[in-house]
């Protein structure tokens, strides 16, 4: 039976030479699957963006603390030099009137500790000299304390800056995934940073009216994580700015805003225009506009807009 190919070998050849069919390749995700993944990413983004905002606020405070401490250090350094100069002048005067004694060269040391050590051996100083020396000693000690404080605060600020960079890297990665999915769906909305918004004509009054008028003027502007205006916003940045326009100062992040409102929480069955509304595990916040509507900055690839209360899925409310 020459020329006959064994059955097993023939089947193997067929398997090797036959291209993969569509059923065997990874199937293209459906629109529903892409939307489900995007929804999951949006929920993760709410958490990450809030952590990024918290780290950013922490960095701002740490940096300001360092600048303040460092400025105090510079001022104290100038005071030490002023006192040192006064002591040198006194030493020169003493020398000129023949009362220098063992003062010679002590005040010309560049080392404050050596200068103090030398002065401590003098036993014939006048009350004025003793007073000036005491002031100088105190100034030197204070200068050292401020210098050490400045170094410590600088280190703390540097650590916070590293923390901020880590959070930003995580958010940037997630945002890239969001944008890729949005573009695959054809639903990416870049928004308009110069949007004039729309006029609010709802039932709000007083401070709530001022807050909602501001928020409605931002409609159409893009969402951007960390955004605090004027051309782009994230959810808590919009809420903070809107209520600032009404004279109420809110914390920066959505979690901080929820904590701030611990004594101001209201039932979802008793909402009034201007109330702050949370959803997605308190990682996202918007403003109730009245008439069953909510204005908010949703997520990457979207814009500040108005949605129905039913769409928003609120889980908590605070009345500023």
UniProtKB/TrEMBL annotation:
Residues 31-65, 133-177 form a coiled coil. Residues 205-320 form the NlpC/P60 domain. It comes from the Bacteria. The keyword Hydrolase applies. Keywords: Coiled coil, Hydrolase, Protease, Signal, Thiol protease. The keyword DNA-binding does not apply. InterPro entries: NLP_P60_dom, Papain-like_cys_pep_sf, PG_Endopeptidase_C40. Residues 1-25 form the signal peptide. Belongs to the peptidase C40 family. This is NlpC/P60 family protein. It comes from Microbispora hainanensis. The lineage of its organism: Bacteria, Bacillati, Actinomycetota, Actinomycetes, Streptosporangiales.
């Amino acid at each position: 039976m020459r020329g006959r190919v064994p059955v097993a070998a023939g089947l193997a050849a067929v398997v090797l030479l036959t291209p993969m069919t569509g059923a065997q390749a990874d199937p293209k995700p459906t629109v529903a699957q892409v939307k489900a993944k995007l929804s999951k990413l949006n929920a993760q983004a709410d958490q990450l963006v809030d952590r990024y905002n918290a780290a950013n606020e922490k960095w701002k405070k740490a940096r300001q603390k360092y600048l303040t401490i460092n400025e105090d250090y510079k001022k104290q350094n100038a005071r030490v030099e002023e006192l040192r100069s006064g002591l040198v002048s006194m030493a020169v005067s003493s020398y000129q009137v023949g009362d220098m004694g063992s003062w010679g060269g002590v005040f010309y040391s560049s080392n404050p500790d050596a200068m103090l050590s030398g002065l401590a051996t003098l036993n014939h100083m006048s009350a004025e000299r003793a007073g000036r020396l005491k002031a100088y000693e105190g100034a030197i000690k204070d200068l050292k304390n401020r210098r050490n404080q400045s170094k410590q605060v600088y280190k703390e600020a540097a650590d916070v800056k590293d923390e901020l960079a880590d959070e930003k890297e995580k958010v940037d990665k997630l945002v890239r995934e969001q944008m890729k999915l949005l573009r695959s769906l054809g639903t990416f909305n870049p928004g308009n940073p110069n949007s004039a918004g729309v006029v609010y004509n709802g039932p709000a009054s007083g401070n709530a009216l001022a807050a909602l008028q501001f928020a409605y003027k931002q409609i159409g502007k893009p969402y951007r994580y960390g955004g605090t205006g004027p051309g782009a916003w994230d959810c808590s940045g919009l809420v903070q700015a809107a209520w600032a326009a009404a004279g109420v100062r809110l914390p920066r992040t959505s979690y901080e805003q929820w904590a701030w409102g611990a004594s101001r929480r209201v039932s979802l069955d008793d909402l009034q225009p201007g109330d702050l509304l949370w959803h997605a595990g308190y990682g996202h916040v918007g403003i109730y506009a009245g008439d069953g509507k909510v204005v908010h900055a949703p997520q990457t690839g979207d814009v500040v807009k108005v949605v129905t209360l039913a769409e928003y899925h609120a889980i908590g409310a605070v009345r500023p």
